[in-house]
Structures are given as structure tokens and as C-alpha cells.
Specification:
Length: 192
Amino acid sequence: TGGGDFSAYGVSDAQGRFLIPNVQSGAMVVSAAMGLICQVQERELEVGAAGSSAQAGEFVFPDMGSVLLRIVDPAGQPIDVPNRYGGECPVRLTISGPGIDQVSLPAPPLGGVRVEGVPFGTYAAELRECSDLLGSGQIDVKDSNPSNFDIVIPILKGRVSYADGTPVSYGYVTLKQRDAQGAWHEVSSSLD
């Protein structure tokens, strides 16, 4: 714009409408972005004299789906993401698919997180802590109906008790597993 740099943003409402107040006169570029892979559309427009308004028009994106990213056990029940190394390494979810080489997200909370604006196609996900693979999943997004994108984590369940059957309510269960290089890793879990 003639008066120097100017930057502003707006967020679309449930009907897709947006309003950016107090724009300056002059040439500008308006960008609209949406979706998992952040599709962007831009257009140039001219705003007339101060006090006038301009229309950016409608930005039209292709139809897309929505998914509920969930971490589940093999039976499909939502579970908390295990933290086997006490926070030493963050648990990260990596997704790849159409238009996405890899996007890394924090692990979703118990019950999942809804992701809108997912282009149609097949997606794969891996959940990792440090370099260890905790679980994986795949989904085929074919239409705009919401679907569950489940990342399945194999689990080992059991119970610890005294000889009289009373549960041991506090303690740790440990498990050692070999990684791909043959090194043993100990995994701890508090009893609940």
C-alpha cells in the first residue's frame, strides 16, 4: 500500500464469511488458507480511497473430508498415549498422504482430535516416541463424511496382586524389548 506495510487477518465463521476491518487504500494481496496441508489461494485487489470498501470475492476450495485422529488399542478402544521414557522424547504423530510429504503433529488427546479440510485420498500415520514406533494406521478419505483415523498401538495388559487376591495398587511393571538394532530397552509403567 502507499502508506507503508500493512498486514491484517481474519478468521472465517461457520458460513465461511470473513471481514477484515480498517484496510488501507491501495493495491493488496488477499490470501485464504485452509486444511491439513494448508492449501492457499491468493488474489490481488485494489482498495479505493480511504473510507471505501472492497470485495475479495469468494475463495472456492475443492471438496474435502474430515477425520477424527484417535489413538486406540487393537480392540478399537481409545487409550492415552504411553510415555515410556518419562518425557525424555516427545511423542509425535507423523502423517503422509496426497500433497503431504510428512506433517508432524503432537499426539492427540484421549478421545482424539477432529481435523477438517483433508483432501480425498489415502493417508498413513505413524506414532513415535524417540525413534521407537508405537503404532500406525491408514485411512482412505473418499467423501465429506467424517471418519475415524485410528492409530493402533499394540498393548500388553495384566494384573498384579498379592497371594490373597488383593490388588497391588502402587508399583511398577517393567518390560524389556529389543529394537531393530538388537539393543534392549526397558519400558516402565506405573500400576493403576
